[in-house]
Specification:
This protein has about 675 residues and is of the alpha+beta class. The protein has three domains: about 10-65 and about 205-365, no CATH class; about 80-205, no CATH class; about 400-640, no CATH class. The strands form six sheets. Strands 17-20-21-14-9-8-7-6-5-27-28 form an eleven-stranded antiparallel β-sheet. It has a seven-stranded antiparallel β-sheet with strand order 12-13-22-19-18-15-16, covered by helices on one side. Helix 10 runs parallel beside helix 12 (about 280-300). The longest helix is centred in the middle third of the chain and has 21 residues, at about 230-250. The N and C termini lie close together (about 5 Å).
Length: about 675
């Protein structure tokens, strides 16, 4: 069976729908009674023991064993009211700013702060002011594309980011669902009007299921708004959108894969759907997706660095790989308890479902090979090889968002220690420290060239090619960098140990094909540049550089343009090939040097033409090869072939088993 089509199965919506029955009030009801959720203020959702039907109950237990799990998570989440009290105290400055709001005030802040006050049962008198400001920021022109949406920030004066309504309605829906009786009448009337317009904004915002975090958020907003406000058609649209996300993930995997920022947003959105939605199908889909996401986190979690390791689809933190996911990790006991300083914690606290202990234990299995698909194309795939002392990861395609990390290495250290990563730099910012405007946001963008990679366990090869469209007019440089942590035990060029002066920049030339390596504890890392090309068509030089930065990073820089020259395409396709190797359990410098010598002597064949390239490297466990050519839109050959599995551990697609109902995958012999 085709590996993609084998994942295209009927959705849970198709087979769970008959189990739903309607009550006289229009509230969905399971075959064994109405769903009980103690965090909901809706009395219609309380379960009645007299309505249970044991036969179907046990059938469901057997079918849904993957989601009917004991909570057994590592640490109990903080109590919601206590955290809400802390958040309310922390946000006093924000409230004072609302008297004369700054241009930076966002619509999402207004709703999040209102929810914090309601959860803490504090200052109901403030809500009217918050909702009045939200009114000012809402587009209520029915002829406008942004009808029902919000300005992202007060400074915008118009809808610039159409995700604003989705972020805002996380709070808006819960305010009406849980707290409308606490809200004073004038403020409640304002809020109801805001929500009515926001429903239109959410319905008009058509989000592709591949846009994982916004697609989940948008679906959840429509579900909860529709059910809270008695708009069955709106809720149904939300369930349909959630089903689309679920089907896409069944077929293609998690598209916004392993993002230290957006994975946290995904978990918040799914957690709220699972906790508050009224239809069984939606609750089950949310729960299964939660299990998949947490399993993905566990498989890619590197305990010696206490972070989500490997290649990332999108990140705001190039150097360390940290982000909003930290909230969920802390609330579920994977990290130290969080300080109540991030207002979006109010959403993370809404979840009832938490990953069990056995999930976290997956992260302690070494060695392990994790592979996963993240799109419908055969090269939209990711590989991550984890050893006790080091991890190596690559993606066979660029994610395409200018914020991805397609080739990475992680070694033990403090959570804020520097990762190893490739970055295509066009503005002399290899560490992602300088933000630039992106609509209403500030982001540290790198370039978006053609990228492909192949990986076999501890050997990975990556290829970058810069096309004319990849070099913006405002580019000030063109460098292919591989960034590494400065705090390694030793650095080497060939068999020569090198030192970096801490008080001044240092640049060390690297000969063509020469090995650059470092050792840190038992971890060994080495890289070679088998091929490079500058804008002038000649081989691009490489240097190992400490540029005097305060971040604790060094980098191997392949410079495609001369110092001080503006990069301009001249008919040649500049680019570079990187070959990385990761080693584990190194005990002495001599053992390390023997390991480096073996890498240096391994064969790397390159056949390069102006419009095509073929590379083959002799990896420790077998060949690593690739072939690509103009117009440089997709690789022609990768060896090993990328996986088409949802989430694969050591060759077994455990992601598929999570997302497919037990009865379905048992009958699918292919």
């Amino acid at each position: 069976m085709d590996p993609v089509n084998c994942l295209r199965s009927p959705s849970l919506m198709d087979w769970i729908a008959p189990l739903e029955k309607k009550t006289a009030h229009g509230t969905p009801k399971t075959a064994f009674g109405e769903f009980a959720n103690p965090s909901s203020a809706d009395p219609d959702r309380q379960i009645s023991a007299s309505k249970k039907r044991p036969g179907i109950f046990w059938l469901l237990c057997l079918c849904f064993v993957s989601w009917l799990q004991p909570l057994g998570h590592l640490a109990a989440a903080p109590i919601l009211p206590e955290m809400a009290d802390s958040l309310a105290a922390h946000e006093e400055g924000f409230w004072r700013s609302c008297a004369k709001p700054a241009d930076s005030v966002t619509s999402r802040q207004l709703f999040a702060y209102a929810l914090v006050l309601c959860e803490a049962r504090q200052h109901p008198d403030r809500l009217d002011r918050l909702f009045a400001l939200a009114e000012q920021m809402q587009d209520r022109d029915p002829q406008s594309r942004g009808y029902g949406n919000f300005w992202w920030a007060m400074r915008d004066k118009k809808v610039m980011d159409y995700n604003a309504v989705d972020f805002s309605m996380r709070g808006g829906a819960l305010l009406w669902l849980k707290h409308r009786d606490f809200i004073p009448a004038p403020a409640r009337q304002r809020l109801e009007k805001l929500l009515e317009f926001s429903i239109q904004g959410c319905l008009r915002h058509k989000v592709q299921p591949a846009y994982s975090n916004i697609a989940i958020m948008n679906a959840g907003d429509l579900i909860l708004l529709g059910e809270a406000m008695g708009r069955t058609n709106v809720a149904t649209d939300g369930y349909t959108r959630l089903d689309q996300v679920f089907r896409y993930t069944q077929a293609a995997g998690i598209h916004e894969f392993d993002s230290p920022t957006y994975t946290g947003v995904d978990l918040d959105g799914l957690g709220m759907i699972e906790a508050f939605c009224r239809r069984d199908a939606g609750r089950i889909q949310a729960r299964l997706l939660l299990e998949l996401f947490w399993t993905d986190i566990a498989l890619n979690w590197f305990p010696p660095a206490q972070k989500l390791a490997g290649a990332h689809s999108r990140t705001y933190d190039f150097l360390h790989g940290l982000g909003e996911l930290d909230r969920q990790l802390a609330l579920n006991g994977w990290l130290a308890a969080p300080a109540a300083t991030d207002i979006d914690t109010i959403y993370s606290l809404q979840a009832n479902w938490h990953p069990p202990q056995k999930n976290h234990e997956l992260s302690n299995q070494f060695p392990r090979l994790v592979r996963q698909s993240w799109g419908n194309d055969w090269w939209q795939s990711r590989t991550h090889f984890l050893l006790p002392d080091i991890t190596l990861s690559s993606t066979a395609s660029s994610y395409g968002g200018r914020m991805d990390m397609p080739l990475t290495v992680d070694v033990p250290g403090d959570r804020k220690s520097v990762r190893g990563y490739f970055v295509a730099d066009g503005r002399d910012d290899p560490y992602g420290g300088e933000k630039i405007a992106d609509g209403s946001h500030q982001k540290a963008f790198h370039l978006n060239p053609f990228w492909t990679a192949a990986q076999r366990n501890g050997d990975a090869a990556g290829l970058v090619i810069y096309r004319p469209k990849d070099i913006p007019a405002e580019a000030t440089t063109l460098v292919s960098d591989f960034v590494m942590p400065l705090d390694a035990d030793s650095f080497w060029i060939g068999e020569r140990r090198v030192e970096f002066p801490k008080d001044q920049p240092c640049r060390l030339p690297v000969k063509p094909g020469e090995v650059v390596a470092f050792r840190k504890g038992g971890a060994a890392f080495a890289l070679r540049v088998p091929w490079s090309r500058g804008l002038d068509g000649k081989r691009a030089p490489s240097d190992l550089i400490y540029d005097g930065n305060s971040m604790g990073a060094v980098r191997l820089a392949v410079e495609h343009v001369g110092p001080g020259q503006k990069p301009e395409f001249s008919g040649n396709y500049p680019g570079a090939a990187f070959w990385l190797r990761a080693g584990n359990g190194i005990k002495t410098d001599e053992e390390f040097l023997q390991w480096v010598r073996r890498f240096a002597s391994a064969d790397a064949s390159v056949e390069a033409k102006p419009d095509g390239i073929q590379l083959k490297m002799a990896g420790l466990d077998g060949p690593v090869a690739m072939m690509a050519s103009a117009p440089w839109s997709a690789p022609k050959l990768l060896e090993p072939m990328p996986t088409r599995c949802v989430l694969e551990l050591n060759g077994e697609d455990i992601g598929r088993k999570i997302l497919l109902p037990k009865s379905q995958f048992e009958h699918d012999t292919n």
